[in-house]
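S1.2 Input.
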Amino acid sequence: MIESIILILFFRDLLKISPDLIQRIYETILKECKKQSLTYRSVAIRVLALFAEEYNFQIYELFWTWFEKALKQPVNIFFFIEIYISLSLSKDPNEEEAEKLDVDEDPILSDAYHRTLIECLPRFWPKTPDIEVQYKKSTFDLLIEVILHSSWQIQLVVIQSVNQILEKSSTLNSTDIIPLLEPIINLGPRTKSSGLKREILKFLKIIFDNIRYSKCFDENDYCRNILQFNIDEMIHDTRSNEISEQAKELKKQNEHLFLKLKKDDEQYPTKNVDSNDLF
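S1.3 Output.
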């Protein structure tokens, strides 16, 4: 079923899809997204994300219930024990086999499921200002939690999604992004991942290039301190000449946004170090 829907989306420009068919496909995908199997559900959610973006479906409220439940709550090991017991006690061999095909008992799969949700976030992002206003703070607060307590691989996916959201939104402003600045920028000098460093520099460039966002450095001295300290640390990073040059060029192009600190009054912000962020 999912494969057929993917084909329809792929050939959408060649096919005349009626509104009724679109609605029926949407309802079918939603059913698939409720499967217990995390592997199957991940595929279905990716298809739904493509569908929602292509046909402008406003379903962020539904997506948020999955997103918050998966990323805010710790994995409950007893849930998987209950699944195992229920499968073991099944009396109907055919029914047991069907359930096994629909349930992932391995909690490790939840990490891949979390990654799927984060990667799909920009496609599900609210299509209207009123829904965005309702969910933007909760979403960014949860993403900050994920950044502070995840591996660099997940941090990379989070910042990539944040960058896509910032690029496509026409209503977010400096007040909305201020909470994101410190946890994201502070990662720059600490991580050994060049890919993560590049995405952080891209995050800064998006902010610098958009006056709605860049105002935060004019309005908030602490943010400018954070920026000054971390960009200088990345410039002097001897592990990657590429990253050092990119950081230097970014600072040169946006010198007016940086705080000029007097040598005698230099006060660098203390970085919030989390053991999971040290690589």
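S1.4 Remarks. The chain has a mean pLDDT of 81.
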